[in-house]
Amino acid sequence: MADDTDRALARHEPGTRWQRFRRAIVTPELIYGTIVSSAVIAVAADDDSDLKVFLVTLVTMIVFWAAHVFATTVANHGMREGRVIGIREAFGGALRHSNGLIYATAVPLVFLILGALNVVDEDTAYNIALLVGVLLLGVLGWLAFADRGSPWPIRMLGALGTALFGFVIIVFKALLH
Question: How far apart are CA 95 and CA 89, in angstroms?
Fold first, then answer.
């Protein structure tokens, strides 16, 4: 399966330990999951409780994750490069491939549940949950440019550019409500 092959090659790729770690962790699924979970949180109505936003975000991300696992399993099942990929192997690879969607949602959900439990003020928890997505996108942009060996000013521009995407989601939310 391509995903397993990619991971095997990553262990033997040139680069520092940090670069290999970055390539293993920073995945399209993590970026996509961050954007989707931020969008779901952002479009919540102003009078929605943090518990409702938590539940809607959790269910939405589980649905997206399940759909991604299903699609990846179906797409990778069959014959690949002269080798038969069984359904169990395709499913296992799909689970590994899709976990970034879940990882991206974890921290915002923690803040939403803290707000729902009144450990943190609900408005504060909601705003932090949105901010976490923006910050994560910024970090991912920084890491992408760092992996290329870009100097820090270019890394900063990459971080600002990717964080700006998250900020645009928040602006759209403000315009919708």
Answer: 10
Q: Tell me the C-alpha distance between 140 and 162, whole Å.
A: 8
Identify whether the C-beta of residue 163 lies closer than 8 Å to the C-beta of residue 137. Answer: yes
**Complete DSSP assignment for 63-125:** HHHHHHHHHHHHHHSEEETTEEE-HHHHHHHHHHHHHHHHHHHHHHHHHHHHHHTTSS-HHHH
* DSSP β-bridge partners for residue 80: 83
- Residue 89's φ and ψ, nearest 5 degrees, are -65, -40
CB burial of residue 37 (10 Å; 0-12, 13-18, 19+): buried
pLDDT in tens, 163-175: 998 888 878 766 7
What residues contact residue 31 under an 8 Å CB cut-off, 6+ apart? 100, 104, 137, 140
CB 95: neighbour CB atoms within 10 A?
14
For the four alpha carbons of 13, 14, 19 and 21, in that order, the dihedral sign comes to positive
Helix (H) or strand (E) holding 11: helix 2-12
Mean pLDDT of 83-110: 92
Contact 134, 38 (CB under 8 A): yes
pLDDT category, 8, cuts 50, 70, 90? Answer: very low
pTM of the model: 0.81
